[in-house]
């Protein structure tokens, strides 16, 4: 099938939403935990998460336009801290359910446990094995559609010792971290290979299979 | 294991690079195809790819600082067009090898075939099943570390008919699209579930298993 830009613009809205949200490929998916200035916690799933830099260690999250109430974005802009918590199959249904428009904290509504580090205000998700605590450093506004790229620097990185390799590589698959596609599909992974650094005219070797 | 920001800043450089590149979770990974003004084609793997919006249909790619020669970024800024091509296991070794510093076009060096659409200058990768042709619409410069978010609008979207669902959802798993983690690890996927839209106090149903 071939869709041109003109055809895409005339597609049924829901069809287009599913099509365009899935065509970027598999995504990171994680729970972002925040707390309002009044002390109400919030947790919700996000899949537009990207590596921004290793030194300083920074991560970006793209948020939809701030035209309606978006608790996660508001809490980050107000309190400047937030957490990113990886998702595993053990609590996947709870994760997807946090996306609903709950009146109370999604931690309570969806039976997820809050966890705190001393001196860091934002809630981590106890169920998660890999967790990151971030501090807001930059906000970029996309002119074309009003979305916001929120960039944070890593203040805390927590991972089970057995999944962190000697070279620093975190074996996400061994940790059970999931990936997502489209708006509502979640997947486990199966490693094909880790390759050595690519050089011209040198055959690739596999580090892991 | 718990790494604080201070510990992260004193880690061995290569260890930190692997650690921070893997902690964001599984990523999209795709080949970006471009052509220079002089007509030399270029193709290279990128994994910082995010959905920006469905209407207009826009995708973002984060590029490292433009302090050394970066052919893909230069070609996009000059010619304003580029392609994103999904990766499958059938040509994974060729994909990873395109990341090396080749003197000639990586298409030729890595035995990948170019493919063109009439009226669209950037090369698609024939080996890919899902391919996107984009036109540059916006460039955002990250002040914190000099990276660049390049946003393009989808001009062409190509996918096999059998993987595009009636609701627009593209079954990436059926198409054999891979995901990546860290700098050098590639993975197949196995669907756990597609869920219905999340509502408060309503049990989730699975659309697909």
From TrEMBL, chains A, B:
Q: Name one Pfam family in it.
A: Flavin_Reduct
Names of the cofactor(s): FMN
Gene3D superfamilies referenced in this protein's UniProt entry, alphabetically: Electron Transport, Fmn-binding Protein, Chain A
| InterPro entries in the record | Flavin_Rdtase-like_dom, Split_barrel_FMN-bd
Q: Keyword set for this entry? A: Flavoprotein, FMN
Tell me the ranges covered by the Flavin reductase like domain, including all copies: 29-162
Keyword Flavoprotein recorded:
yes
Q: Which GO terms describe its molecular function?
A: FMN binding; oxidoreductase activity, acting on the CH-NH group of donors, NAD or NADP as acceptor
Xref: SUPFAM superfamilies = FMN-binding split barrel
Family label: Belongs to the flavoredoxin family.
| Protein name, per record | Flavin reductase (DIM6/NTAB) family NADH-FMN oxidoreductase RutF
């Amino acid at each position: 099938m071939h869709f041109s830009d003109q055809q895409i613009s005339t597609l049924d809205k829901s069809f287009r939403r599913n099509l365009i949200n899935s065509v970027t490929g598999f995504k990171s998916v994680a729970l972002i935990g925040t707390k309002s200035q009044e002390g109400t916690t919030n947790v919700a799933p996000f899949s537009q998460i990207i590596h921004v830099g290793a030194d300083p260690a920074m991560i970006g999250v793209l948020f939809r336009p701030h035209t309606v109430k978006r608790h996660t974005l508001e809490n980050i802009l107000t309190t400047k801290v937030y957490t990113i918590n990886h998702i595993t199959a053990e609590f996947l249904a709870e994760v997807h359910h946090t996306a609903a428009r709950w009146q109370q904290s999604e931690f309570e509504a969806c039976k997820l446990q809050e966890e705190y580090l001393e001196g860091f205000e934002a809630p981590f998700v106890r169920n998660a094995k890999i967790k990151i605590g971030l501090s807001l450093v930059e906000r970029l506004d996309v002119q074309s559609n009003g979305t916001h790229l929120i960039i944070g620097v890593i203040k805390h990185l927590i991972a089970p010792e057995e999944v962190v390799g000697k070279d620093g590589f975190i074996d996400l698959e061994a940790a059970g971290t999931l990936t997502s596609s489209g708006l509502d599909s979640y997947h486990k992974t199966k490693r094909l290979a880790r390759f050595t650094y690519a050089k011209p005219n040198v055959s690739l070797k596999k580090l892991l299979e």
